[in-house]
């Protein structure tokens, strides 16, 4: 059938299509061939289709005999609201902070060693991952003993010297021999924090470490307490305290800014005597060489592992 006016009827609806799907393209192409539009099948229930009775079809429906007439073109679809852009996936979180091949613990990685059962043999400190703090006055032999002890262990061990780290500062180095002031105090604190971080780094990678520092018993918050905060509660402090004459003799062999005056050495040695009665293990290495002191240090650490000191 050819309509006098208008466009062909839209095709019948398909499942999943809206009532206006596909209309716009047919209605806006004037060059499309005009021809008889195929009549869609009447809905079920219209008269004459054998499906019984049903609602009366609208006038002009093909095949009803109600006459023909122009079918108005469909009204143009109103533009819908703008569609939001497709949601973007949130970026993946950054990888955790790691140092080396083992993630660095957030703090206090050195756990307090547990006492072995009574029937167990004494632990071997030479084969155990440890964190040791060697305390003593200038000239006590801390650095020499710490290096020797680290060199002769059966497990990886690092030596961290506070004086070495403090002397990383080249320009603007605050030498306490020129007078103890805020700058030297700040550089000491910075060196301790740096040493503590280095110790945690080594321990997180299963490398033991031994630190040496002249920690005073009358400054527990800055000294021993500071090291405990920086490294962890499992840090094992040991004091080297030879006689004053030995300390003066060893100090006289030093050079550079590590050599102190005799008066300063005597003052530091007197303050270190406050460690007696503190509960910390003390080694008097006045008559011991470096290897002998290292062997005594192993014995002290074995007892400290079996029964950790309270500090």
H/E topology pattern: HEEEHEHHEHEHHEH
Helix content: 25-40%
The CATH homology group name of the domain at 140-306: P-loop containing nucleotide triphosphate hydrolases
C-alpha Rg, in Å?
45 Å
Quickly list its features.
alpha/beta; Rossmann fold; five-stranded parallel sheet; two-stranded antiparallel sheet; 8 helices; 28% helix; extended
Structure in a nutshell:
The chain has helices at 23-27, 142-151, 162-166, 182-204, 224-231, 244-252, 262-272, 290-306, and strands at 98-99, 102-103, 131-135, 157-161, 208-213, 236-240, 282-283.
Describe this structure in words.
With 311 residues, the chain is an alpha/beta fold. 28% of the residues lie in helices and 9% in strands. It has eight helices and seven strands, in the order H-E-E-E-H-E-H-H-E-H-E-H-H-E-H. The protein has helices at 23-27, 142-151, 162-166, 182-204, 224-231, 244-252, 262-272, 290-306, and strands at residues 98-99, 102-103, 131-135, 157-161, 208-213, 236-240, 282-283. Helix 2 crosses helix 8 (290-306) and helix 6 (244-252) runs antiparallel to helix 7 (262-272). The chain is extended and about 115 Å long. Residues 1-7, 16-33, 48-52, 63-67 and 98-120 have low confidence and may be disordered.
Q: How are the SSEs ordered, and which strands pair?
A:
Elements: H1 23-27, E1 98-99, E2 102-103, E3 131-135, H2 142-151, E4 157-161, H3 162-166, H4 182-204, E5 208-213, H5 224-231, E6 236-240, H6 244-252, H7 262-272, E7 282-283, H8 290-306
Parallel strand pairs: 3-5, 3-6, 4-5, 6-7
Antiparallel strand pairs: 1-2
Helix pairs in contact: 2-8, 4-5, 6-7
């Amino acid at each position: 059938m050819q309509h006098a006016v208008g466009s062909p009827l839209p095709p019948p609806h398909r499942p999943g299509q809206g009532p206006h799907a596909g209309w716009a393209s047919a209605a806006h192409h004037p060059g499309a061939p005009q021809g008889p539009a195929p009549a869609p099948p009447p809905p079920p229930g219209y008269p004459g289709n054998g499906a019984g009775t049903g609602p009366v079809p609208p006038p002009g429906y093909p095949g009803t005999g109600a006459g023909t007439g122009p079918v108005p073109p469909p009204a143009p679809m109103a533009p819908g609201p703008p569609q939001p852009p497709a949601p973007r996936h949130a970026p993946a979180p950054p990888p955790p902070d790691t140092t080396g091949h083992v993630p660095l613990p957030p703090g206090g990685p050195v756990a307090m060693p547990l006492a072995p059962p009574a029937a167990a043999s004494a632990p071997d400190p030479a084969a155990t991952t440890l964190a040791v703090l060697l305390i003593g006055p200038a000239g006590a032999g801390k650095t020499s003993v710490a290096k020797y002890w680290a060199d002769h262990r059966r497990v990886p061990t690092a030596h961290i010297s506070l004086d070495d780290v403090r002397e990383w500062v080249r320009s603007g180095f605050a030498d306490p021999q020129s007078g103890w002031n805020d700058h030297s105090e700040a550089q000491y604190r910075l060196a301790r924090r740096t040493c503590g971080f280095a110790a945690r780094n080594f321990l997180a990678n299963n490398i033991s470490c031994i630190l040496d520092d002249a920690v005073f018993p009358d400054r527990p918050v800055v000294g021993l307490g500071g090291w405990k905060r920086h490294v962890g509660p499992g840090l094992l402090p040991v004091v080297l305290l030879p006689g004053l004459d030995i300390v003066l003799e060893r100090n006289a062999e030093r050079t550079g800014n590590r050599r102190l005056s005799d008066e300063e050495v005597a003052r530091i040695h007197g303050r270190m005597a406050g460690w007696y009665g503190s509960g910390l293990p003390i080694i008097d290495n006045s008559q011991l060489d470096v290897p002998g002191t290292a062997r005594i240090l192993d014995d002290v650490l074995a007892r400290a592992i079996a029964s950790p000191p309270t500090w």
